[in-house]
User: Which sequence fits this backbone?
């Protein structure tokens, strides 16, 4: 059993397309929890409640589960599962998340609560990146199931190479990487070029930056050993 955590704006939609091609009906997509649109106490309470429940028939029948959820949800109900995820530079991830949420593809009344606030109140990039509700997203998702429990952490900035390794190691097959849900207006350089703003965002999200650096260090060890 593979449990694939889709952290927001980390190429998870592209990976999902590849997982659909590989697993077909054996892929279970879990996107109903909407963790970012729940207060911290509620999403943690929900994950804890789910963690102690037995796996349901759909979960037991699946070969891979992929989606937005706190992985604690599956830590105990699927004790033999292999956990995998992908990460990218936290500042760039935040900026990508902001432009995704504010691109105007859905009317405000159809949006989940937090995204609706961002759009209706006209948040700018700085407010979004320094919002307490969005602080340390990696750490929030990984609460109760830390990064060291993951057998693989891919790096989005090296997606093609890491995707090839992921397929060989965990799928036992080769597959073509897909590119979905990318921002067509993304600048050629970094989203956040202002060094002062970048430093403030990095300080505010220091836990996520530490997790990302740990993931980079693991990747270096993996590639050096290849």
Assistant:
């Amino acid at each position: 059993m593979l449990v694939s955590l889709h952290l927001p704006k980390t190429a998870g939609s592209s990976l999902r397309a590849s997982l659909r091609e590989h697993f077909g009906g054996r892929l279970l997509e879990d996107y109903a929890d909407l963790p970012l649109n729940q207060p911290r106490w509620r999403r943690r309470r929900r994950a804890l409640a789910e963690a102690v429940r037995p796996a349901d028939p759909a979960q037991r029948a699946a070969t891979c589960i992929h989606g937005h959820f706190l992985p604690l949800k599956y830590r105990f109900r699927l004790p033999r599962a292999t956990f995998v995820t992908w990460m990218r530079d936290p500042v760039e991830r935040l900026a990508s998340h902001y432009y995704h949420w504010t691109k105007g593809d859905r009317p405000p009344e159809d949006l989940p609560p937090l995204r609706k606030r961002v759009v209706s109140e006209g948040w700018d990039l700085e407010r979004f990146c320094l919002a307490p509700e969005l602080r340390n997203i990696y750490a929030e998702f990984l609460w109760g199931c830390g990064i060291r429990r993951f057998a693989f952490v891919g790096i989005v900035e090296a997606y093609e190479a890491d995707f090839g390794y992921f397929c060989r190691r965990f799928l036992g097959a080769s597959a073509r990487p897909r590119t979905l849900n990318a921002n067509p207006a993304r600048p050629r350089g970094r989203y956040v070029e202002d060094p002062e703003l970048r430093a403030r965002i990095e300080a505010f999200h220091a836990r996520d930056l530490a997790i990302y650096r740990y993931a980079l260090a693991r990747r270096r060890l993996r590639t050096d050993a290849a």
Q: What stands out?
A: The CA atoms of residues 3 and 57 lie 16 Å apart. Residues 2-225 form a domain with the Rossmann fold fold (CATH 3.40.50).
